[in-house]
Amino acid sequence: MLKYQILFIVLVSIAFGACDGTEPNAMFDIPSSYSFERNGESTVNYSGQTDRILMGEELIQAMQDFSLDEATLKEMFANETTSGEDANPFSNESLNASTKSIKSKVASSSDFFSSNTVESASIKDDFESWISAHISEIIPNQNMVASAGQAGQIADGSTPRYINAKGLEYNQAINKGLIGALMVDQMINNYLSTSVLDAGTNIEDNDEGILATDKPYTNMEHKWDEAYGYLFGASEVGVDPMSTLGSDDNFLNKYLARVDSDEDFSGIAMDIYNAFKHGRAAIVARDYVTRDEQAAILRDRISTVVAVRAVYYLQQGKVALETGDLGGGFHDLSEGFGFIYSLRFLRNTNENMALFTRSEVDSFISDLMAGHGFWEVTSTTLDSISEAIASQFSFTISQAAS
């Protein structure tokens, strides 16, 4: 049975060791919660990440409101119109006033996409094309009974699911796709990357305690906090988010809790939370070796969460289809589709590169959606994709499927 071991020991009331950043400090304090202060003022801020999570929540909810038009949904994604009838698409006025957007951060990490703008643009286009297809395919056929080649609705128990001609729910593709393209990519390929943490004079400034302009934190501290915000930015108590884990948003936070609740992966959530605290404390202590060790743990654990859920939904969908539950099976496979899409943003910590290329992910999706898609997909295909995913990790299909 696979068990994650918590890798951290909280060291209390021990003086800082050498802090030149070239060697790991032997000892420094790690707080019991994600709370860091300077001169009595909190140095933690991730408001931009909170805004984007809340924007994503409103977008996903809005896709269930068939009275909304394409322009409104796309504006929720892009948040780029400042006047006219398409401006202010959110019910939360603070989001309408925000300068942040989902689109601007999708597939925009320093490590994966700064020099790969063609793929970045293509990924952004995927999300906008799913919104367009939702409007053009789902809404006109919302009262039709879906069948192979015919978009419409299908029953999942007492819940109607609205699917395209191949059985895909576009809202699920967007919801789960954003976990990888926004949250994971920004966390592990951007803010936890040495190219971002050590950019410019960040090391020298952090060593000398030089703060960002008019802010209580150094640039390096802030970058680490922004990674934290993509997981815990909507948490009720951001400094101590574990008590409400899974209920704070419908993105990575939710599915970290789902994976952690599986006894095969019990402890993974605490691994991640502790690594965030440990790495942030290392930055305060100017111990960049320890910081990077914690970033490597985060890349590994966060990538594992996405991969586990991809396999989980493929296997749940397989079981449902084998028992004749098409509505339930198509819903599971739609969630699986989004998590498969998110594989593109996972990180191989050992080789410091993507675990799955765009062509590999496209191949998985092509196999999943071949012919009439979910109406025709076989158990053999679902098992084959599941095995290809699990083979990159230390878990088995059966462990992820439960």
Secondary-structure content class? mainly alpha
Please report the number of helical segments.
Answer: 16
Tell how many strands the DSSP assignment holds.
6
The proportion of residues in beta strands is: under 5%
Report the end-to-end length measured between terminal Cα atoms: 12 Å
Overall mean pLDDT score?
93
Tell me about the biggest sheet? 2 strands, antiparallel
The dominant shape is globular
Radius of gyration: 22 Å
Enumerate the strands of the largest sheet in spatial order, edge to edge or round the barrel.
1-2
Unreliable spans:
1-22
Helix content: 40-55%
SSE order, one letter for each helix or strand: EEHHHHHEEHHHHHHHHEEHHH
Description:
A two-stranded antiparallel sheet has the order 1-2. The longest helix has 35 residues, at 288-322. The chain has helices at 47-62, 70-78, 93-97, 110-113, 117-138, 170-191, 194-197, 202-208, 219-232, 252-260, 268-284, 288-322, 326-342, 358-369, 379-390, 397-401, and strands spanning 37-38, 41-42, 152-156, 159-163, 347-348, 353-354. By secondary structure, it is mainly alpha-helical. Helix 6 (170-191) packs antiparallel against helix 9 (219-232) and helix 6 (170-191) runs parallel beside helix 13. The model is unreliable at 1-22 (pLDDT under 50).
